[in-house]
Write a structure and sequence with these properties.
717 residues, alpha/beta, Rossmann fold, 3 domains, 8-stranded parallel β-sheet, 7-stranded parallel β-sheet, 28 helices, 15 strands, globular, DNA-binding, P-loop_NTPase, hydrolase activity
DNA sequence: AAAAAAC
């Protein structure tokens, strides 16, 4: 454990002003040596020092209050292979019961030797049970890791993975999903690839354009939209589709017969209310109980006007079709020359359907709900028109444009569920904003806030970030959202999940009254009703016709296995040339799997919330750059993350929700390329898996599998 | 139950 020696280089406690015991001198006087007694030799760390430093270093969530602020990573952190190796070593110990707290990046963890950290009594040394130490990693056998959890360590989470069965219990509860999850969601990635490769430049991302058409090809899907919907309308002028606001322009065009109700009837699927979704019909058949928890309105919201309810229940979108966009340019949509050029540099020469559909309404200042499957260009769909709209508002206000006024408050905000996604969005939006002289900045946690605050003080126009840090800075008085007139919620349905909804609501309440709201997601559904009710006015709802699984380039396979074979099977599947993304349900299991793969000679890195931000970023970039071909992640990587050429997604643990399945699967099969999704399940989970697939409208073969089976080799190819 | 998201 290299960290030990290196820690010694970090300076004496007193010198760092971290010691409370010294109390003899000002922390500011670094060189001041009042008490010579201890000066003879290098000052030693006291438990308090270490504890304080540990907290500061990790920025762990548990020890709030102290050590906040610095949190910069030590520069002695191992790199590359060594880092991975070191990481695994520490991880092994952690599993043996010694780990201080969950931060996986052991690099920063001050050694956890028992000495330093008094608290975790478990110091492995004493721990009897550590027996595991010997076989920590084989993790697969959940059996072994018994009691240690018991102790205090919450994280030992590992267990859960292994002990699948327990979960089981809940599995049976299929119903809930039904309700919540509406549509087939194609979603997941809305954002074109551009993203993740931070390294490379954002722009190209747009390459999506190149694969835009595919999506469109949905022509095949005759069903819904086409018929009922006026789609062709492309002339936004008349645009029938946005219709959503029935109030305003409902009747017109649509009037045709179908419109009001038709949604429900004709185009079942896209409807946001899953309840009505026809296809899954099976499900509901069986479970009539659909909770309808998502129907805020009718039941528990008296304040709601019937009209609003109608909107939410339908959440029926106007589906635009590929043919509607033919010949349409970004300029036709109302975007200015600079922005059009910036888009071209990003690789977006012509608008994708979702972009063409939402841009006019965004520019018109309307609230918009947009649904488009992975890679359909959602980021540009809200990013480009948002920038154009900001310029227009600025011009209308009569203020001088183009000048960066020191300390001016941001006028636009984009919220994302994960830091990686926020970074990815910024890579696309920043060049567009800069093309017209606007500035963006990222505001997310896990990194020192200094730079972020500095950027805000210099003045930015668009803030892109995650809820936690944004709310934190608002409370600190360092971020003023009162002038935010355009707010975007990416992965909006997810932002309405428990844990996210309230912070998001509080943040939205800080923005300007009456500000424009744009909600996007591949799986946008009624789950957003609460936000729609409180913050949106007569939203226009858009989606792209033909985006169904049948038109997908992803092959789905379910392997029915013995739980004990899970590790071996994953090894065989991941032992391949192409990029492979493995999803695990918990952070611990993800870490364990990466460890196991590495031990098996298959270079692998992990991505989950127990890693510090720099490691998260580094591990993801290792997959992006191709330095490693296997990434084992939790659902932190399920939505939005774009990595080119992932051709195999392995779900080590089946997801509970069909939406999660769709988002995870959407990491592959991008840009029209072929992709394969393999889900491992124990026999008793077949029925539940079937229901989930039905909801997702995915067809997949169930194949009994044991380690060494030929089809594993085929899948790995 | 888990994961994500602030210090």
């Amino acid at each position: 454990m290299p960290p030990y020696k290196k820690n010694d280089r970090r300076g004496a406690p007193a010198a760092r002003g971290a010691s409370a015991s010294a109390g003899s001198r000002s922390p500011k006087h670094r060189g001041y040596r009042a008490e010579e007694p201890a000066a003879g030799k290098k000052a030693r760390w006291t438990d308090e020092d270490r504890a304080a430093r540990g907290r500061a270093t990790y920025g762990s969530r548990d020890e709030s209050g102290s050590g906040r602020g610095r949190g910069e990573r030590p520069n002695w952190e191992p790199r590359g292979k060594d880092a991975r190796r070191t990481e695994r070593e520490w991880e092994r110990r952690d599993r043996a019961g010694e780990r201080p707290r969950r931060e996986y990046d052991r690099d920063e963890r001050p050694r956890r030797d028992g000495d330093d950290r008094p608290r975790r009594s478990f110091d492995r040394d004493e721990r009897p049970r550590r027996e595991f130490d010997d076989r920590p990693r084989r993790s697969f056998d959940r059996d072994e890791r018994p009691r240690r959890d018991a102790d205090d360590r919450p994280r030992r989470s590992f267990d859960r993975d292994d002990r699948p069965r327990r979960q089981f219990d809940r599995d049976d509860r299929p119903r809930r999903d039904s309700d919540d999850r509406p549509r087939r969601s194609f979603d997941r990635d809305d954002r074109p690839r551009r993203s993740f490769d931070r390294d490379e430049r954002p722009r190209r991302s747009f390459d999506q354009d190149e694969r835009p058409r595919r999506q469109f090809d949905r022509d095949d899907r005759p069903r819904r939209d086409s018929d009922d919907r006026p789609r062709r309308s492309f002339d936004r002028d008349e645009r029938p589709r946005r219709s959503f606001d029935q109030d305003d322009r409902p009747r017109r065009q649509f009037d045709r017969d179908d419109r009001p109700r038709r949604d429900a009837d004709d185009r079942p699927r896209r409807s946001f209310d899953r309840d009505e979704r026809p296809r899954r019909s099976f499900d509901q058949g069986e479970r009539p109980r659909r909770d309808s928890s998502f129907y805020p309105s009718r039941d528990e919201k008296p304040a709601f006007t019937p009209t609003d309810d109608v909107v939410l229940e339908r959440l029926e979108a106007e589906a635009i079709e590929a043919a509607d966009v033919e010949g349409v340019t970004f300029g036709d949509l109302g975007l200015g020359g600079n922005i059009v050029r910036a888009l071209a540099e990003l690789g977006a020469e012509t608008p994708f359907p979702i972009q063409a559909a939402t841009a006019p309404d965004v520019l018109a200042g309307k609230d918009v709900l947009g649904r488009g499957r992975t890679g359909s260009g959602k980021t540009i769909a809200f990013g480009a028109p948002m920038v154009e709209r900001l310029m227009q508002l600025w011009a209308e206000s009569g203020k001088a444009g183009g000048k960066r006024q020191l300390g001016r408050a941001p006028r636009a905000l984009i919220l994302a569920p994960t830091r990686e996604l926020a970074l990815q969005i910024d890579r696309t939006v920043q060049p567009i904003a800069r093309s017209v002289g606007l500035f963006t900045t990222q505001i997310y946690g896990g990194v020192p806030q200094g730079r972020q605050v500095g950027a805000l003080q210099r003045g930015v126009d668009i803030v892109i970030g995650t809820p936690g840090r944004i709310e934190d800075l608002v409370e600190q008085g360092r971020l003023d959202l009162s002038e935010v007139v355009i707010t975007v919620l990416d992965e909006a349905d997810h932002m309405c999940d428990l844990g996210f909804l309230e912070p998001v609501q509080r943040i939205l309440r800080h923005t300007a009254d009456g500000g424009q709201k744009l909600l996007f997601s591949a799986t946008l559904d009624k789950g957003v009703a609460q936000l729609v009710d409180e913050f949106l006015v007569d939203p226009a709802v858009h989606e792209v016709a033909g985006e169904d699984q049948a038109s997908s380039t992803i092959d789905h396979r379910v392997l029915v296995i013995e739980h004990r074979d899970k590790g071996a099977i994953i090894e065989q599947l991941a032992d391949r040339e192409g990029k492979t993304l493995v999803f695990a349900r918990t952070r611990a299991f993800a870490e364990m799997l990466a460890d196991q793969l590495e031990d098996a000679g298959i270079p692998a890195v992990s991505l989950h919330g127990d890693l510090n931000q720099s490691r998260r970023t580094r591990n993801l970039s290792q997959l992006t750059s191709g330095r490693v071909n296997v990434l084992v992640a939790t659902d932190v990587a399920a939505r939005g993350i774009h990595v080119d050429d992932i051709d195999l997604v392995i779900q080590a643990d089946a997801p509970d929700e069909y939406k999660t399945y769709l988002h995870r699967a959407g990491r592959t099969g991008r840009a029209g390329k072929q992709g394969t999704v393999v889900t491992l399940i124990p026999r008793h989970r077949q029925r539940r898996m079937n229901e989930l697939l039905e909801r997702a409208e995915i067809e997949a073969d169930f194949v009994p599998t044991a380690p060494g089976d030929d089809h594993l080799l085929t899948l790995a190819q």
